[in-house]
Amino acid sequence: MAALTLREVLDLDPVRAAEPELLAGHAAVDRPVRWVHSSEVYEGANFLDGGELLLTNGFGLTDADDEVRRRYVRELAARGAAGLAVEVGRSLPHMPGEVVDEAHRLGLPLLALHRVVPFVRITEAANRAIVARGLSGRAVVRPWGDDHTAALLADLADRAALNQPEVEARSALAGFHPGPGARLVGVSVHGTREVAAVDRAVRLLGGAGVLRAAFPGDVLALLALPAKVAGDPVRAVQDAFRVAAEPGLTVAVGHAVDTGGGWLRWSDTLRAARTTLELALTVPAAEPSRADGPLVTSARALALERELTRGGVDANRDRLARLVEHTLGPLLAWEAAHPSDLVRTLEVHLRNGCSPTRTAALLHIGRQSLYQRLERIESLLGLEIDDPDLLGELLAASCAHRVVRGDAQGAVRAGRLSAV
Fold first, then answer.
1. Which pTM value belongs to this model?
2. How does DSSP assign 395-412, residue by residue?
3. What are phi and psi for residue 23, nearest 5 degrees?
């Protein structure tokens, strides 16, 4: 479907109420309008990407000299603006002749708005119309067609060319209205083509706002936890999915971000959830999970794995193998000759603050057996495990060993996600 044109924008009720008069650029009224912004005159051209209609109250034009006004129009045209609409009669008594002349020369549509209508009414009506017409006028054909929620989530996860007003307008069109102070958390679910698990988790979270859609490789969701929800939002989302998700599903939770942090932060938490899900499907878990429930993890739980595999496991395999051999060589040699589980024991112990009680419980062994393993590890490596200078290297190497090694379970679970 064709993008909304400037002629069609001029026909919207709030625009007509402003009594627009086209002073220049009559031949370009059928050009597409990608978005509508409002800004003070000196700031307007700086953030345009092309195809925008810019609204201004003209205050910045009142004291500017002729050349400054002409240069401003030239900058808008150079940026590919769809047009300039200036409110006249309040801050600016009439449209300056040099602005009209320069717009004529460049073929830039120039509008005089003769009645005061709040710009927020104009931008809201126009941008909603743009979104409804064709998702900001982009000609990209998405496999999910008219599903605005899926398209928005895909654009956020892909970090497509967006801007904050566009994201907010498209979110509103999808019924997503995160309130002030809300915390947003991205979630990616593998093993189902239904959004039911997400809906159940939302109910458990007290009706948090949500954008969710099913894609070929996963279900993707952006949850908005109200400011009144106390505690750790990531933990709350994980706990909800442990109850709401069916056995066999894999759920990855991204970071918590402020709703007012900008659309790039919205994108960050969704992308973190996606990356974490792929790691959860391809890398064996550091600690055993319940066989009768879903596997629920988070970006922070796999933070080390994500850092070690930036660019992909295959691209880092040789580097990680060298780290493992350098740090854990004697343990690997021992394990090759003796049935044991020393590297895994070391990693679980380090991940749990070197707590013997916690480590033994997770490994399902007695504390005495654990002490024997730890003594063997220290003897083979010739060092003390709880030396603060060694903790980082030992944990990174043991994690890298698990990432590079993989196992049969990891291969079975490695249903690679389809790229959006």
1. 0.61
2. HHHHHHHHHHH--HHHHH
3. -100, -20
